[in-house]
Amino acid sequence: MATVSMGLSFTSAAGAAPEGVRGDPDGLKLVKTKTSLLGTHYWYQQTFKGLPVVNGYYAKHVAKGGAVEVADGRDAVPANLDVSAATTPAAATQTANATVTARARRAAGPNKSLVRQPAATSGAAQLAVIGGPNARLVWNVTSRSTEGVSRSLVDAKTGSVVESKVISDNIDGRGSVFDPNPVVSEQNEKLTDQNDKNQDALFLAQKNVILRNLDGSGKLNGSFVNIKEAKGGIAQSKTNTFVYQRANEKFEQVMVYYHINQTQEYIQKLGFTDVNNESQDFSVDTYAGDNSFYDPSTDMITTGEGGVDDAEDAEVIWHEYGHAIQDDVVPGFGESEQAGAIGEGFGDYWAVTNSIPVSKGFELPCVMDWDATSYTSDEPHCLRRTDGTKTTDDIDGEVHDDGEIWSRALWDIHQSLGRTKANKLILEATFFYDPDTSFAGAAQDTVQAARLLYGKAAAQTVTDAFKARKILP
Known about the structure:
With about 475 residues, the chain is of the alpha+beta class. The chain has helices at about 90-110, 180-185, 200-205, 250-270, 315-330, 335-360, 400-415, 420-430, 440-455, 455-470; strands at about 1-5, 30-35, 40-50, 50-65, 70-75, 120, 125-130, 135-145, 150-155, 160-165, 170, 175, 225-230, 280-285, 290-295, 300-305, 310-315, 365, 385. It has three domains: about 1-75, Nuclear Transport Factor 2, Chain: A, CATH 3.10.450; about 90-165, Roll (Nuclear Transport Factor 2, Chain: A), CATH 3.10.450; about 170-470, Orthogonal Bundle (Neutral Protease, domain 2), CATH 1.10.390.10. It has a five-stranded antiparallel β-sheet with strand order 1-5-4-3-2, with no helix packed on it. Strands 6, 7, 8, 9 and 10 form a five-stranded antiparallel β-sheet that branches. Helix 6 crosses helix 7 (about 400-415).
């Protein structure tokens, strides 16, 4: 997979792909067109005989001045590859689910052995092609388990599992949706969940807010948020009044709506009108475990209710929305380990930067203070921090661990350039990421965005932040 820059220039009709697209390689399907501050970005799915090629992509970034940069992530597929399946989709689904279930139960560990873990469930299997030296026809099966959402590729000829991995973006432990959460707003590390019980201290932490951009349906649906499903049923009000105490399961729905609407409004104030500018689907409190995740196969964010209900902590919600942002801007983002770590690091950073206006400086680099009270004993309670000391020397291959390297670099940029400048360039740079980018590749994109937006001095500041983490030499 290579990135090639070309000094081409062409024009296009409003809203259409440019005329130059006709010169692109055959077998490409335009799946998304995105507009950023510096240009327009055309994303294509590689296909073979009408079937998607797994991880095969082609992107054309057209700057406002006409310059074109192409990212070619296609894989070679033999012209004579047979695309008729010998195994049925039902058989492939059964095999995939068995693989995911076994892995999830192993991951549960001995401390959870007394609790039977539920078997994986899945949606429909879809035919696809794997390119490269071991090209083959596969069934692409998505499964949901205690790990989150997994993608399994099952050989359509032999029925064997070629690959199975978790594709959802998970975090362990979840929190509170006050503003941003009770620990921060009350500056009280001693607060505890008490099994979702109403408490005087937590009642005082609740804040009356205006819910903007509702669609008038009497539900918590609007321009940027869609509560699609929820434990206890969807909140409804003929007068659009949604006032509950935290013990009520509908409280989490309100806070999901409010905090996602707030962060999307902030994104648009930065000048971006095409960064997940949609009604993001949510499934609230529907997962029994202490885990929340974004599922790219359905574009759904699911929040769990183990420990502190995850949707009670705005920083959990903002973290998961960070994954939705990157998947919207870069289709299929997170294919490499370092891209996955960038996703986790960005999610943590996005949670922290969104907390700034309401946190009064209280433990800002601490991520998910309220959620973490369920599984930490040290104070302050933090799932992770954005001011750690890790560098690339500390890479261990686990995306949440390695994400702390990336989040620290972003936090340093934030501290040096200020919140507005930092967030504008970080979002702009994301448009130029490859789905399987590396730390170094994404860092170079961020430096370039800083240079184009703010000049050489800002670019040097960004470079220095990445050098400190040993991401850039």
